[in-house]
Amino acid sequence: MPSKELSDAIAVVTGGGRGIGRAIAAKLSTLDATVIITGRDERRLQQVANELGVNGRRVHAMRCDVADRGSAEEFGERLRRDYGRVNVLVNNAGIGGPGGLFLHQLDPEDWDAIFNTNLRGVYYMLRAVVPLMIATGAGHIINISSLAGKNPLPRGAAYSASKWGLNGLSYGVAEELRDHNIRVSVVCPGSVDTDFSPRRQGKDTSRMLKAEDVAHAVEVLVTQAPQSFMSEILLRPTQKP
To answer: How many distinct structural domains can be found in the chain?
Structure first.
């Protein structure tokens, strides 16, 4: 699909107020999509929307806590009422939880927060958006996962498990929605140089992936030809940090 076809697209990016989500929103806006960024900090979202919405680009802020079922349902209803459709959904919102802990040391409330955002939140967003895509007859769903969902992550087992779960969810939903011309893909980056990533002493951040690298992967997915379906992208730095 040529990128010019995004000029009529409605794109939703969760966790769009910072880091990878902000970079993805910026990229989609340059492809001429109307981009809606979500998150819990409405003031920050509006600031980012104002910064990105220049030179005719259309970026709008809507508060939505993906971990809250009521908030996600209200967001989906607002999308239906205000836009009538969604063409691209990027499930990017995620949290890592406290670092440096063995799993048995992790507070159950932290476990719940990780899974409610990283996995349950994606489920809520799918419930809100997929019916709109089915009605339209097409769509792109891109779930931002992690290489931690492919490889062991000691002292980060809960986060890793949430991303393994997200990968499995993505593969299953992809098969469910293929007949509706909806492509569900997963992007698994390694360490990305954002505020989200822990800074380890001696780590060369110049070698780390940048948020724009993940945004580029999303661009590749939403501009692929109609007969093409890239279901997964594993994204690593050229050299280990």
So the answer is: 1
